[in-house]
Amino acid sequence: MQERETKDLLNELDNIRKEVNELRKQLNEVDRAKEDSFSKQHGVREQIHQKLREIKELKVKRNQFTEKVKEMKQQRDIFNKEIGQQLAGLKEKKTEHKSYSRDDDPRTLQAKIKHLEETVETSAISFEKEKKLMKEIKDLKKKYAAVKEEYEKAHALAGLSGEIHKKKKTADDLHSQIQNFANQSQDFHEKILQLSKEIDDLKVNEEEFHKRFIEQKEQFASVSNALQAKLDVLKGIRDELDKRNVKSKEQKHQEEQHLLKQKDLEVKEKLKSKKKLTTEDLLVLQSLDDGSE
Questions:
Q1: What global pTM score does this model have?
Q2: Where are the alpha helices (DSSP H) in the chain?
Q3: Are residues 87 and 192 in the same domain?
């Protein structure tokens, strides 16, 4: 009866050992898969951090251009306000300005006055004619004064128009730069939006790898517990067989190999010291040769 129970224990030992080997194989596979998921999750997380660093740099550049646009808009608005005020003043002055013919320009009038004055001073003319010329000179001088004032106003208007033109050009240049900087700021902003979308997609992948890692970690723990349970059973069977002084095939094989190694060392020592080999020594060498083949 005890011999039969011992046989059953040995059979169970073989079966449990097979299950242990299978569970160890399964545990290694789960562990590799778990580490692979963790590695991929870590890789995705590093990609996210890299893109976050890129976004930070892009925001600095975008904000710099946005601030430049803000400052230049203020400058442009100041110029446009000044231009508006000067245009209104120019329009008002043009309304007040009187126009004269080419014959009434200051130089022509001054030449006429000089000619008449020389005529009065150097020519022998009658009193009536002199009186008439003096009146004409007086009228021309009065007209010269008025025309000169208008010509000075016209010159001032021309200068104001030139100043307005320069300010308009400056305002137009500022507007062009504003558009350029605004476009660059927008380009940086669009890159930020694109990177943000990529980060959202990566976060989804990261979450999937994290869930997979957690599931595999739980699976690893489950298989590990199952393996430990089988190892406990295996130990219990071995302990029971040890009590009955019964050795398994594995134990017998290990003991035989250990004994052969010891014998092999003894034989090699005899050969080294040139001692005579016994029949048992020769059998040991033969069995080792057979095993190596």
A1: 0.55
A2: 2-96, 106-122, 127-243, 249-272, 279-292
A3: yes
